[in-house]
Write a structure and sequence with these properties.
8 helices; alpha/beta; UDP-N-acetylmuramoyl-L-alanine:D-glutamate ligase; two-stranded antiparallel ribbon; nine-stranded mixed β-sheet
Amino acid sequence: MNLPVVLSIAGSDNSAGAGAQADLKTMSALGVYGTTAITCVVAEVPGKVSAIQPVEPAIVAEQIRLIFDAWPVAAVKTGMLFSRAIISAVADTLGECLAREPRRPALVVDPVMVATSGDPLLREDAVALYKERIFPLAALVTPNMDEVRVLLGTPRPPGSVGELRDAGRELATRHQCAFLIKGGHLPGAVATDLLVTPAGEVTEYTAPFVPGVNTHGTGCTTSAAIAAALARGLSLHDAVGEAKKYVHKAIAGFLRWEKNGRVTDALHHFAP
């Protein structure tokens, strides 16, 4: 049996709750074959990023080339790209590879800029290049509220569903691709995400908010789930809907460990 192939271009998270490790778990759970191009090695646990070591851009590019040479890639997602040099290498190589494919794979861009812990995951001088080089290749961009603030240059993130909608419309119009604006950290009993197209169409996806869970990696998992669904042939609207349900199940079925007085939570990527 030949499974659809998805490429994750992302950082490596040693805690396996986010980054390429979370992407691979998600892709396996959703019935596609996950491959990776590692951009950074990150030492982190939920709530703390201790160190980041970027991979040489030429090695990042070669990983991407080799995957496209060996597999019929059906979809791609990008996660943590970190620096201008890596962004440029990814944009150049990915642009070449996508253009050669007889059926162009959809690209889902998770613009990883700020960790759940608040630690920066993208150098400040790289934001403009991200928008200039990566967004034009994308079918969908999936920022969280802090990333929306960075992309729009506003002093604070959106604080309501109405502000999410306005931000999504501005970004989708400005960059001429669809945006999924993730509002999971808005106050209230419902977690709301909005899919906004360049034509101004807005689709709302909701799930019950799960209190008392302190996980990380929901953004990585969401974008990986969407890429997996697109690779299997779902429409963008249906892919986002499937991803929303999957992430809610992973949060609601969370895993928890206690050691040395510390409680560590993680998404359950294979929750029944």
